[in-house]
Design a protein that fits this description.
The chain has 342 residues and is α/β, with parallel strands linked by helices. Helices cover 41% and strands 16% of the residues.
């Protein structure tokens, strides 16, 4: 049924028409409803020290977002690595419904609450996106007598307990978990020395204060390119796919998996983004879309190649399910290592 306007006088008709036109103009002036976006600077929490893989990725994201104008407000990186990252995670957990805060995660997302009494779980935050999975490489000093992963592993098995010093980031964290896995595979103990961050770990190996490390590629890459460190193998199931234009000794593509070299150990680490709890779907979507735009940049692809990342990404339910499975995997690994708090 259609309805027509019936006016009793031309004056009233003109007045009604003017009102209708004014209302239409007001609607057009307002335009479409805009999606949510930050209205002030966004704090980017790094639950680790400076110079490590998480810190480098956060500062890289900060830079490319600003350079490419991907958001109007700036990103401010803040390191809160106290308590094996608990300081940063608790800060995000307790800042409920604040859409102007994000955090980058590493495996301490799982290991810190499992290995301590800190009242925190990854479910206390809002998952945004998995940016990539980070690798671990077995590194030695360039002047080390161990030319290959097999030679290193044979020396570990043949030598006395605790004769070799392994440097790593933190206690009861991913570096020490891998160290324990190496010990079990070799049947020998290593002397594990924890440091404050991946950059410091690489520096200690350059200075020959430790015999080996299991650092991420991005944390030791510059020393490797400078000929100060030697990469022996990668702790992933598949070889690295990157074919760079450097010497064969400094090509990720020529680095064997540790398993193929006779070391039955595999481990990769999350590089993911979370927000505080209580976030609206629109606010979460802004950061999901922002991180997707970051990953589409040519600069990101160069960063992935430089750091030899495993470029697995996900968000939404797939990301949530992956987090649950990986938490359980870490619970098993930490129980076997004797690192569980209870």
């Amino acid at each position: 049924m259609s309805r027509t306007l019936n006016f009793t006088s031309p004056t009233r008709a003109r007045s009604a028409l003017a009102s209708l036109l004014a209302a239409a103009a007001a609607v057009l002036a307002c335009g479409p409803v805009r999606a949510w976006e930050p209205t002030k600077a966004v704090e980017f929490i790094v639950p680790a020290g400076t110079g490590g893989g998480a810190d480098q990725m956060a500062r890289f994201i900060q830079g490319v977002v600003a350079k490419n104008g991907l958001m109007k407000q700036p990103i401010v990186v803040v390191n809160k690595g106290g308590g094996a990252g608990a300081e940063g995670f608790l800060d995000v957990k307790n800042d409920k419904a604040n859409p102007h805060k994000i955090v980058i995660t590493l495996s301490n997302l799982f290991t810190t609450p499992l290995g301590t009494a800190v009242p925190f779980n990854w479910r206390d935050m809002t998952p945004v996106s998995m940016m990539a999975l980070d690798q671990f490489v077995l590194w030695v000093n360039a002047e080390s007598p161990h030319q290959t992963a097999k030679a290193f592993f044979d020396a570990l098995k043949a030598g006395p307990d605790r004769a070799m010093k392994m440097g790593g980031t933190g206690s009861k964290q991913e570096d020490q978990i891998i160290t324990v896995m190496l010990e079990k595979a070799a049947g020998k103990k290593l002397t594990y020395i924890p440091y404050g961050g991946g950059g410091q770990v690489a520096t200690q190996l350059v200075g020959k204060h430790v015999d080996a490390t299991v650092n991420n590629p991005i944390e030791a890459e510059s020393h490797w390119r400078a000929g100060k460190l030697r990469a022996l193998c990668v702790f992933d199931a598949q070889p690295l796919p990157y074919k760079d234009k450097v010497t064969d000794k400094q090509s990720w593509a020529n680095l064997p998996t540790c398993r193929s070299a006779g070391i039955p150990v595999e481990y990769v680490m999350l590089r993911g983004i979370f927000m505080p709890p209580g976030i609206t779907p629109e606010q979460q979507k802004f950061y999901v879309d922002l991180m997707a735009r970051v990953r589409a940049l040519p600069e990101w692809k160069d960063f992935m190649t430089k750091g030899a990342f495993n470029q697995t990404t996900m968000s939404g339910q797939a990301y949530f399910d992956w987090l649950g499975r990986t938490e359980q995997q870490h619970r098993v690994l930490m129980r076997e290592a004797g690192f569980l708090a209870n």
